[in-house]
Specification:
Order of helices and strands: HEHHHE
Shape: globular
Distance between the termini: 9 Å
Strand order of the largest sheet: 1-2
Radius of gyration: 15 Å
Strand content: under 5%
Largest sheet: 2 strands, parallel
CATH topology: Diaminopimelate Epimerase, Chain A, domain 1
Number of domains: 1
Oligomer: single chain
CATH class: Alpha Beta
Length: about 130
Amino acid sequence: MRVEKYFTASDLQAIEAAVHEAEKRTSGEIVPCAVAHSDHYEAAAWKGAVLGAFAAVVAAGINTHVGQHEWDAVVAGIVAGMGDGKPGKALGAAIARCGELLERHGVAIRADDTDELPDKLRMQEE
């Protein structure tokens, strides 16, 4: 399955613009990713644990302030958009919401902030 078939050129531009706009209000970096599929079930548990542990360390500060229900709502929006055949629009809205959450919960823009990472959607086939 080719991930890029789900995103039009317009979607990709909108996603990149959403990241750029969201990052204007926060020093956080938003890195959108799309993958063709997750790992096989047997490998998913340990890889998820490792990635989850890493994510918990990186995001520990923000997760103490943002309720799980807020992250769940972001995910639900993406899932609904995928189901409606509008993944680009849904991902753009989710990115905007993540920017709002970061800003509201103390990851505000700093005077010395720079944009360290590209704003484009990363797509991985395998």
